[in-house]
Amino acid sequence: MSHDEAVAIIKKHSGRDITSGLAITGSKGEWPLTGIYWAFKDYDAIIGLFSREGKVTELTYWTKKDFGESKSHRAQTEQNIKALKIDTGTREVSIEKTKRESDAN
After folding, report:
1. Where are the domains of the chain?
2. What is the model's pTM?
3. Residue 33: pLDDT above 90?
């Protein structure tokens, strides 16, 4: 999926870009960054949307509580996902995790 398509879907479902409020810089010192971390107002979800050459390459997920903790806690609770499903009726989130190579063995 393209980054622009993903952002349009995220915004449609109450997603708000929170990247610029975080103390992170780009590999070449760029700051503030935008379009990477998204909070869903109506859902208990924060996602990381990582792209290369306009295509989404990786998604990560946290609950709002976990993301609100320290950087080390966020690192421990970060989940790599390949799909995020939101139920607009119940406001629930479900995720499909990415299988790690170590899980396949």
Report:
1. 3-104
2. 0.86
3. no
